[in-house]
Write a structure and sequence with these properties.
single chain, mainly alpha, disordered N terminus, ComplexI-like_HydComp
Length: 492
């Protein structure tokens, strides 16, 4: 097995674009010459977006927020500002990774124009969604982001990537249809009480009732259940492992670290609207979905022999931890927000490093990759650090976040949730270690040719590790204040 016949998702000779549109060599050379500027331009745009978000963060004190735009349909508040900074940081890293891969990958160069256009459109939709001050607008933008991401998923190198992309879209339509049923139920609840309903985030709470209302609770239930499916919470998690495995690694990182956070913002908006209303009902639903997700993830990880699927099921586990923390609120809220932020960087680090391993070994299966740390020392080290961060080891931010969530659960007196979370995280830790550590440190089973790697490829991954350590050891006061403001908005 050599690197020439074992290319990563982005570089696979069996990729959809390469199979459907083969190029003669002279035309391929012309194409490369005509598109050589696209990936550097993509990095430049991502850098500009990151600098803009950081500039807004540094120049807009929390005391000045919220700021409304477009007839109050858009809002810049602590929630939108936090996630804007996070996703732009992640997106910059993904673009740098894609640029470094594209320089040595003709197959990727062939569709870099459409890929870059889809990624930029995807990010534009995500940014508007983060600032949406209207639930129906936010719901619509989540679906549009799925339509932008589906063609990127279809560029994967599984047997039938377009079928996976279609199933991803169908799951999304189903979960968002359930969410829309929730909107209809809220409208019916307000109509029966003779109240006019507005789905503006800062106005919808005025049409809610603190008295028992079956329609209102049904609406809340549908909204959380539908959006839970977009987050990969059980039982509507089936799309996530298949899609994350089939998609190119850069697309997997976009879905796990960018689109996930848009859906997370939608959940935060609902919690902000229902703050103090039906709190017990919200807690119970999130608690049940969190329980089931942790159990499902633990079982699947124990049986997993595919490292990319293992990362995907770890994402299901992370969603379960988030749901448990949100069900408690109060003292656990800060830990939940920190956990969500840290997970964006952990997922990106793992998926981008998995792309390097896929490029060399040509498989997502664990067994042939025995001895990665010897064959690919840097990739093996970075993947190890990512796994440690995923499992909640110090000094990474995920360790501090999990401790805060567990502390909040104990303070809330929910010993069942505390026990289940500890047991499931222990099972996941053991199962992940049993699968991953032999892959990293075992005796090599195959001989591979390792293509040279540009130092540029390492920059985003090293940056993600640095951010995770910083958040776990010392967080600058302005960012701590931003995290705390978001936690307070969801009941912390």
């Amino acid at each position: 097995m050599t690197a020439s016949n074992s290319i990563a998702n982005e570089t696979s000779s069996t990729s959809w674009a390469a199979d459907q549109y083969p190029f003669p060599s002279h035309l391929a050379d012309e194409l490369v010459h005509g598109t050589h500027w696209i990936s550097p331009a993509l990095v430049g745009i991502a850098l500009l977006m990151w600098l803009t978000s950081m500039g807004v963060f540094l120049t807009h004190p929390l005391s000045e927020l919220p700021l409304y735009f477009a007839h109050r349909y858009l809002v810049l508040d602590a929630t939108s500002l936090l996630f804007m900074v996070v996703i732009n940081t992640v997106f910059l890293g993904i673009c740098v990774y894609l640029y470094s891969r594209e320089r040595n990958t003709p197959a990727l160069t062939r569709d870099i124009r459409s890929r870059a256009a889809l990624m930029l459109l995807f990010m534009a939709v995500i940014h508007i969604g983060l600032m949406a001050n209207h639930l129906v607008l936010l719901w619509t933008l989540i679906e549009i982001s799925t339509l932008c991401a589906a063609p990127l998923v279809a560029r994967g190198d599984v047997a039938n990537p377009r079928a996976v992309a279609w199933r991803y879209m169908l799951y999304s339509v189903m979960t968002l249809a359930i969410t829309f049923l929730g909107f209809m139920c809220l409208t019916q609840s307000a109509h029966l009480r003779g109240v006019e309903v507005s789905f503006m985030v800062d106005q919808l709470g005025e049409s809610l009732t603190r008295e028992s209302s079956a329609w209102q609770r049904l609406g809340l239930s549908f909204m959380l259940f539908g959006l839970g499916g977009k987050l990969g919470l059980a039982p509507l998690y089936g799309w996530l492992p298949e899609t994350y495995e089939a998609a190119p690694t850069s697309t997997s990182a976009l879905l796990a670290s960018v689109q996930f956070n848009l859906s997370m913002v939608a959940v935060f908006r609902i919690l902000q609207i229902f703050h103090g209303v039906d709190a017990g009902f919200v807690s119970q639903e999130l608690l049940v979905m969190g329980y089931i997700s942790l159990v499902v993830a633990a079982i699947q990880i124990m049986a997993c022999t595919n490292y990319k699927r293992l990362i995907a099921y770890a994402c299901v586990s992370s969603s379960g931890v988030i749901a448990l923390g949100l069900s408690v609120g109060k003292a656990a809220a800060y830990g939940v927000v920190l956990y969500i932020v840290s997970n964006a960087f952990v997922k990106s680090l793992l998926f981008l490093t998995a792309g390097r391993m896929r490029a060399v070994y040509g498989t997502n299966e664990v067994d042939p990759l025995s001895g990665v740390i010897r064959t690919l020392p840097l990739a093996g080290l970075l993947f190890t650090l990512g796994i440690f961060a995923l499992l909640g080891f110090p000094p990474f931010a995920s360790f501090l976040a999990e401790m805060l969530i567990l502390s909040g659960i104990v303070q809330a007196g929910n010993l069942l949730a505390f026990t289940l979370m500890c047991v499931m995280l222990t099972v996941i830790f053991v199962a992940t270690g049993r699968t991953v550590f032999p892959m990293l440190w075992g005796a090599p089973k195959v001989t591979v040719t390792v293509p040279p790697q540009s130092w540029i490829t390492l920059l985003p991954k090293l940056g993600f590790v640095a951010v995770l350590v910083m958040l776990g050891t010392y967080t600058p006061d302005p960012f701590t204040d931003l995290l705390r403001a978001v936690a307070v908005s969801i009941g912390g």
